[in-house]
Amino acid sequence: MKFTLSWLKRHLETEATIDEVVEAMTLAGLEVEDVENPAEKLSEFSIGKVLTAEKHPDADKLKVCTVETRDGTKTIVCGAPNARADMTVAYAPLGAYIPGLDFSLDKKPRKIRGIESSGMMCSGKELEVDEDADGILDLPQTLEMGTPLADALNMNDPVIDFEVTPNRPDWLGVNSIARDLAAVGLGKLITPPTNLTPPKFETDQKIRVEDTEGCPAFVGRHIRGVKNGPSPKWLQDQLKAIGLRPISALVDITNYITYDRARPLHFYDVSKLTGSIIVRRGEGEKFEALDDRTYTATEDDVVIADESGILGLGGIVGGESSSCDENTTDILIESAYFDPLTIRRSAKRLGVNSDAKYRFERGVDTGGLIEGCELATQLVLEICGGEASDIVIGGEIPADPDPIKFDPMQVNKLTSLSLSDEEMNTILTKLGFTVKHGPIWKVTVPSFRRDCTEDADLVEEIARIHGYHNLEAVSLPPLPGRREPTATLTQNRTRLARRALALRGLSESVTWSFALDEHAALFGGDNPALRVDNPISNDLNTMRPSALIHLLLAGQRNADKGYPGAALFELGPVFDGQAPNDQSLSLAGMRRVESVRDWSGMEDISALTAKADTLEALDAMGVSADNLMLMEAIGDYWHPGRSGSLRMGPKKVLANFGELHPRVLKAMGIEGRVVAFEIWPEALPAPRKKNASKSKGALTLSDFMPVTRDFAFIVPDATAANDVLRAAQGADKKLISNVTLFDIYQGKGVEEGHKSLAIEVTLAPTDATLTDKEIDAVSDKIIEGVMKVGGRLRG
Amino acid sequence: MRKTSKRGSYKADTCPPSSYAERPATMADIDSVKTKIAAQIKAASDLQTLDEVRVAALGKKGEVSLMMRELGKMSVEEKKVMGPALNGLKNDLNALVEQKKTELENRALDAALASETMDMSLPITRRKGTLHPVPQVMEEMAVIFSDMGFSVAEGPDIEDDFHNFTALNFPPGHPARDIHDTFFMSPVGDEEKKVLRTHTSPVQIRTMISQKPPIRIIAPGRTYRSDSDQTHTPMFHQVEGLVIDKGIHMGHLKGVLMDFVSAFFETDVDVQFRPHHFPFTEPSAEMDVRYQRDGAAIKIGQGESWMEILGCGMVHPNVLRACDLDPEEYQGFAFGMGVDRLAMLKYGMPDLRDMFAADTRWLGHYGFDPLLQANLATGLS
Q1: Has residue B82 got a pLDDT over 90?
Q2: What's phi and psi for B185, nearest 5 deg?
Q3: What does the pLDDT read at residue B118?
Q4: Taking CB atoms and an 8 Å limit, are B254 and A471 in contact across chains?
Q5: Whether A384 and A436 share a structural domain
Q6: What's the pLDDT at A128?
Q7: Which helix (H) or strand (E) holds A727?
């Protein structure tokens, strides 16, 4: 909402400077977004008087003028056809920035066709004060030489733009802004009372409201004998200052009252009406609106019609057919109340915006229907003449809001402010409320403040006007009882896992929760329920099933910029449906397989690197892979031969890892190979419930030396090494403390399709040193165990 | 030692021991033997030679041992003189051998080390990743609020209208909903369209419905609004806070947020509370911090300008009622702030969109060392 300081002063008697006004607005909750003083861009310009104007000796269209300026008498060569002696002009000195031309004059005089010119005389367009480019500004002779141009043009009037919060539609009128500023003590509210114009005749214009839901009330008045034309300068200036284009007196009056009182109005040309005004729902008819568009009104829209058809969309936009023009002599004033929800839905569906719609959808003052009509009457009679009829009302003016039973103690209870009854009473009264005292106050709410319905609302009004800076900051009282950790298990676990991954060289990223549906499909997603109805862009149109999607894309983007070895991870949500339980937390990461050229030859990235990432992350989260099952990865985006999953039991998958399927990468435009992992931290088993004690229990250290024995087993290629290791470990869980795979061999001595796995088994006795016999017995069990998974001792 | 002293393992010396065995030794003999053997020890060029010298002199059949054997043949008077002299000879030679041995061992080690070199300038590959600023800042916030007794609560990103709007006192069809530029999900059957939560306030609602006061939570998480430019992204992050108890008032709200903001920026920050409007709080406020622009950088806590950093207020009675809490009995406050924006202000990233682009150079520059853990004892970052 924009308004000017001078407009505010029509309602508020104040000596406050613009800075003080802005400060007071800010502290009263009117959030100022911008202050612009048109005088600032005119600061270099002043009034000059043309003394002589002669034709340029060498140019037909140029004149050589001598101009009396505050910088002395200057010779200025000018191309304007209207330049003449004794003219009062806008003078721009050398070096001045000309806003309309977007350039600065030279700092030194310039020769124009051989004659030195020292400055410029400007047109309205060059100064951006009007659209006139045909000649230089021809200003009143009464202006004194040297007067700053902004003062001369009455443009030293700052424009304030502020945010109107949805609860305060009344702030869309300058009078309400003034009321709040008066309440905070910035000045005195002086909104002039509206004249009640006695009727000169009885109108035969009938108004019939059929749709009382969409338009509860329509206040009308017929004024005859008006003369439309340009509006007076003060009115034009006010509108122009806030960026509105003056059109004609009648249109300008409605715009003025819209901004002055947040009261949209509409004037019909009575000569263009056929019979009664009817307020009803649309019936699918088309009409030409004042915004040069054609609309089709349906039963969802409130329309104003007459007996020949539709005239306009009530509260949104008027129609061409009944609009006022320069020949209009009889007008019908519409001062109506439209249902905010109906307006909002219609305007949204039809894609219309207007000052009227903006106000009606927020709710206009129901108490201002008659007053708005009277104010319009007063201005029309003042400016356009004519005589007014009686006021006719269609429908019924909505009742005033219910009074609030207000407990003044609530102010202290909610805010801790201690104000006297008198202070509170003064604030409420200045804001337009009336107070009837008692232990519980009865507070009458003005019709323009329907946002106030209960105690808390009045508390806010009192605290807001008194000032939040008066609130004393207090620390929260400590909570009773022992301090518990404030983070959840998963939060603590992921905090550590993220660090473990970063220490392994992966960088944490945060990427969109949305993805492209085609990509989602590659990762088992693209559930129709996960499509976003109104996506920000077509490539972010569904909720992601996997965090890998954007990590992969980001990896490729980095590669495209010349940084091919991205290793990234992300902790974030993935989606499987719309219900809260369909969302899970994923800790996913990926490494692009780039051959790292390093002298040491280490660090070749493979699917097993992703396995190591997974195990490190799980370990950081307190989960040992020893207790998990290693099975095939879930999802066909994994390389079928180089991937796996870790599970707690056959169905509960905790993590997938491995190389990604080359087909999926190709479909996403990812070059090269990528290894990745996905871990579901919320699926991890909770640590075993410890007793209240955090004690770790006693540690017994065996005094007996552990012994090691080596074995080599021949197994078919396809046999997982882990199966052999587990079989060996399982031979005597108590005695065998460790099994290490120390060599894998294929080649001479091992038949085709087989491999030799060499393991070292550590036996750690606890009771007595092992005898050879005991060691042999365990060895036999190990060999037996490994045979069960298809291995045989290498001879 | 044993191995080298085996019989027959030494070769005969130039002076056969038999020459002394023929007659008892004299003091002159001792001196000459000492001189001779000391010279041999000194000349030994390796451990094996040295041992041979030692055995030839001090071994069972060594020259000195044979000389000592002659003692038995001497008179008591002679013994008194020659006994200590021969012992002295033996000890002196032993000491010389040990000294030479140490010398030879050191020399051998030095020689071995001379060939065991490595280029210590070879580069070592260290790859440490970084942690993203958004989770970092969320952790910082969690640490500060944890100190004031706030727990961390979470909720789903796909929300229903009730939790995202209606329970938060956004009347259906109210223009306040427009401000949120809501993303809607595809409709499923006849159900009302779900939304992507426009703030983390629905977590407050879920908490108030499922938990009895006193409540002290913060709700960090992803939020979504259909907006995109240098300072807006369709996905962003919020941390909201909620305190519900008996006797909680706006002074507490001010106290908590003032404490928070100075702790977060790790400097004294001057704040200003201004009235504002949010459907879910009444009275409502925005908090500004003092700041100064210094070129492209923004300095929080200095200067004459104010910058809005969060919205807050006393929980609206309608919100309490929607969660079955009696506003006569309980009251409290709520606040919400943009994590990404606060991260940018604190750590100086110029463009919000870069936060989600996962450019490795950006992550390297703005990311955090994984060994750091935000905490109040050692500092937040």
Answers
A1: no
A2: -90, 160
A3: 86
A4: yes
A5: no
A6: 84
A7: helix A721-729
Q: Which residue of B has its CA nearest to A502?
A: B129
Burial of A619 (0-12, 13-18, 19+ CB in 10 A): middle
Q: Is residue A308 domain-shared with residue A386, that is, in the same domain?
A: yes
Q: List the single best residue of B127, B256, B376 to mutate versus A (max A Cβ within 10 A).
A: B127
State the Rg of chain A over Cα.
42
Q: Considering the domain boundaries, does residue A476 fall inside one? A: no
Residue A674 to residue B295: CA distance in whole angstroms: 42
Q: So what's the pLDDT on residue A481?
A: 85
- A116 and A60 housed in the same domain: yes
The enclosing domain of A459 has a CATH number of 3.30.56.10
Across the interface, which of A167, A491, A531 has its CB nearest the CB of B277?
A: A167
Quote the pLDDT of residue B236.
95
Q: What CATH superfamily classification does B133-366 receive?
A: Bira Bifunctional Protein; Domain 2 (3.30.930.10)
- Residues in chain A with CB shorter than 8 Å from the CB of B234 are 512, 514, 536, 540
- A534 to B276: CB separation less than 8 angstroms, yes or no: no
Give the separation between CA B52 and CA B350, rounded to whole angstroms.
Answer: 82
The CA-CA-CA angle for residues A159, A162, A164, to 5°, reads 140
Q: Are residues A16 and A45 in the same domain?
A: no
Q: Rounded CA gap, A591 and A552, in Å?
A: 9
| Cα radius of gyration rounded to whole Å, chain B | 45
Confidence of residue B207 (pLDDT cuts 50, 70, 90): very high
Least confident of A4-18, A363-377, A720-734, B211-225: A720-734
Strand partners, A209: A279
At A657 the pLDDT is: 97
Which candidate from A29, A501, A534 shows the least CB-CB separation from B226?
A534
Does A529 sit within 8 Å of B185, measured CB to CB? yes
Question: Computed from CA positions of residues B19, B25, B30, B32, in that sequence, does the dihedral angle turn out positive or negative?
Answer: negative
CB < 8 Å from B in window 434-473 of A: 454-457, 459-460, 463-464, 468-469, 471-473
Q: Which residue of chain B is at minimal alpha-carbon distance from A529?
A: B186
**CA–CA dist A409, A263 (Å, integer):** 36
Instruction: Kindly provide the ipTM of the predicted complex, given to two decimals.
Output: 0.85
Per residue in B24-46, pLDDT tens? 677 788 888 889 999 999 999 88
Pick the residue from chain B with its C-alpha nearest to A31: B276
Mark yes or no for CB contact B214/A600 under 8 Å: no
Helix axes B250-265, B339-347, angle to 10 degrees: 40
Per-residue model confidence (pLDDT) at position B280 = 94
pTM of the model: 0.85
Asked which of A60-64, A342-346, A477-481, B14-18 is least confident by mean pLDDT, the reply is B14-18
DSSP string, A667-681: HTT--SEEEEEEE-G
Question: Across all residues in chain A, what is the average pLDDT?
Answer: 92
Give the residue from A247, A251, A292, A293 showing the smallest Cα distance to A268: A251
Is there a domain that residue A699 lies in? no
Task: Examine the pLDDT at B14 and tell me if it is beyond 60.
Answer: no
List, in sequence order, every residue forming a beta bridge with A104; answer none if it has no partner: A97
Nearest-Cα distance to chain B for A637, in Å, is 22
pLDDT tens, residue by residue, A85-126: 899 999 999 999 998 888 888 889 888 888 889 999 999 888
Q: How close is the nearest chain B Cα to the Cα of A763, in Å?
A: 36
Domain map (residue ranges) of chain B: 18-113, 133-366
Report strand pairing: A72-78 vs A88-92. unpaired
Interface of A with B in 88-147 (CB under 8 A): none
Helical ranges in A271-361 per DSSP H: 340-350, 355-360
Residue A233 domain boundaries: 207-395
pLDDT tens sequence across A542-576: 999 999 999 999 999 999 999 988 999 999 999 99
Compute the nearest-CA separation of A510 from chain B (Å): 5
Q: In this complex, is the C-beta atom of A513 within 8 Å of any C-beta atom belonging to chain B?
A: yes
